[in-house]
Amino acid sequence: xxxxxxxxxxxxxxxxxxxxxxxxxxxxxxxxxxxxxxxxxxxxxxxxxxxxxxxxxxxxxxxxxxxxxxxxxxxxxxxxxxxxxxxxxxxxxxxxxxxxxxxxxxxxxxxxxxxxxxxxxxxxxxxxxxxxxxxxxxxxxxxxxxxxxxxxxxxxxxxxxxxxxxxxxxxxxxxxxxxxxxxxxxxxxxxxxxxxxxxxxxxxxxxxxxxxxxxxxxxxxxxxxxxxxxxxxxxxxxxxxxxxxxxxxxxxxxxxxxxxxxxxxxxxxxxxxxxxxxxxxxxxxxxxxxxxxxxxxxxxxxxxxxxxxxxxxxxxxxxxxxxxxxxxxxxxxxxxxxxxxxxxxxxxxxxxxxxxxxxxxxxxxxxxxxxxxxxxxxxxxxxxxxxxxxxxxxxxxxxxxxxxxxxxxxxxxxxxxxxxxxxxxxxxxxxxxxxxxxxxxxxxxxxxxxxxxxxxxxxxxxxxxxxxxxxxxxxxxxx
Amino acid sequence: xxxxxxxxxxxxxxxxxxxxxxxxxxxxxxxxxxxxxxxxxxxxxxxxxxxxxxxxxxxxxxxxxxxxxxxxxxxxxxxxxxxxxxxxxxxxxxxxxxxxxxxxxxxxxxxxxxxxxxxxxxxxxxxxxxxxxxxxxxxxxxxxxxxxxxxxxxxxxxxxxxxxxxxxxxxxxxxxxxxxxxxxxxxxxxxxxxxxxxxxxxxxxxxxxxxxxxxxxxxxxxxxxxxxxxxxxxxxxxxxxxxxxxxxxxxxxx
Lengths: 479, 254
Prior knowledge:
The structure holds two protein chains of two kinds. Chain A has helices spanning 2-9, 35-44, 49-63, 101-109, 116-121, 139-144, 152-158, 160-166, 177-185, 426-434, 439-455, 460-473, and strands spanning 26-28, 87-89, 123-129, 132-136, 148-151, 190-194, 203-209, 220-225, 230-238, 245-248, 251-256, 261-268, 280-291, 297-304, 309-312, 315-318, 324-333, 338-347, 353-363, 367-376, 384-394, 399-408, 414-424. In chain A, the strands form three sheets. In chain A, strands 5, 6, 8, 10, 11, 13, 15, 16, 18, 20 and 22 form an eleven-stranded mixed sheet that branches. Chain A has a ten-stranded mixed sheet with strand order 4-3-7-9-12-14-17-19-21-23. Chain A is α/β, with parallel strands linked by helices. Chain B is globular. In chain B, 40% of the residues lie in helices and 28% in strands. The model of chain B has no long low-confidence stretch (mean pLDDT 91). In chain B, the strands form three sheets. In chain B, strands 6-9-10-3-11-12 form a six-stranded mixed sheet, sandwiched between helices. Chain B starts with a strand and ends with a helix. Chain B is of the alpha/beta class. Chains A and B meet through helix 1, helix 10 and helix 11 of A and helix 2, strand 7 and helix 3 of B.
């Protein structure tokens, strides 16, 4: 019928509100990658020699590696010599009060509370602009209870013992191609240390912004919760609209000691490219949490709506007995976006539990792949996993794929996997409209219903934002 | 006249389905439309509700004096047009109550009325449930998901009761229902009969009309209404079959 063709697949337009460029002078390294560049990055950040050497050994290892090809992604070859590995705004501020008003305006436009508003919002923010952190709020209040929250660069200089102890302990420098690259050239990121017995009194968040042209962003985040500590952390990301692909290769490491709990939430909205797949961020990220202590808990929640290509698998190593890992994900691909994302739950300790809820939404010509590994090792008595993996298709040219890997070496393990695929059809939309609900609202309602399980895991104010973001990202998915 | 359909011609995928249909419906009336498969009965319902893919090549549809065909489906709904679907659609993950509240409030907003809050909405829902003998268990499930055929149809009637349309079109609401379920549906419709409200009841069988007694019966054959009458026409049809009408029509033409 004529309806089939016209209803869903026309009018593909999409708004990207964060796509503006801030006109600010920046101090960038020329494009190219070599040992000298690695040294130069280290030197600009006044790093101690051990850090420089750490980077160099990662770089040398990276040179021996090849980019991974196993993901279900179609990636144009990346010219690593065409990327600038360091860019920072000139006139670097000494405190938040000296931050260039243009920068503050940027974060204001993005809705990130950096200044007075931060106080009202009650969320501590670290803002990373291109390669450097431009300011962290609430530092003093946090320091009063013993929590360290600062940029990674500062942490290397000011808390070298902690950094040396934990950096690379979850994601080793040679872990994978992009993690090795990140270890060599990482620019900035957040460092969080919550000492024994402390419950972090507020949400912590980092806001990443790529602004400069032809630069990559290689952030490195390290979050440590000591015995009995707990913390909830959220990161958000945006970038201007540009025709070239830009590389974002981050590494995030989480360490939870006995009875500690870490909740890590991501709302990823990097520029996705236009409707023809021109431009957009390559989001190649390694995120891993180590439940090192008994009864520790790490929970990943991600809402991935941006990026041309997403390649990331936030994982949990369930080392401590009775530790728990969770992964809650909404990944949306529209137009020509591609995502290959999922998680790894590695059960080592006794009575370890993991739960995976993955919601993939594909629209336009988007391709969405869930890839997950549940591994139960020999010593993991009483291990349990539950996986639920749902796909929602909007239109006829998109795709959803599921690759669940299950490796069980313990006969007593209980592993459950459920999967569904559904589709938003013209019939559903007409049904909603015939009841008075406008088409775009109907799509949001259906998508929202589909994602509810994951959204409820987000801190409340971000859940509202995530919902809105999804609506905007799906604009024009039906027409 | 609430609804005035004049010489309506409609094509679907290049094929003419409605070939000059004329029908007038006043507030308070119940019109039954009967006819064999392929006569264009469901097409009529879909065209009135505004489903895409129907090309109107000739004729007009006036609803309360305005051109109905110029309105989007959601506008028609807010103006009081309701189609009870022959095959109600499942929407997984969307709670039935939430869906209904969104629909009702979208309509109210369009009409410039205040939106209902959850308490007011639930109060209204409970009243309707009581009248329709529907268990509130259906409310907590996703829209039509996993509903039996009878539950889906009852849910349509429940939606109708809640949205309180001015013109309700029931597209073969009796199909696939056993006699008890059909009675429940008919009770729901009868409870809603009102001098301000009109119904178009599309059905294959006379049986439903034993319970929903129409003011007018129209027989549709090959995209046109070929015979109109009162309740007794339905009984004659039952007795003689549609072939009888076709013969009469031929005789009339000749």
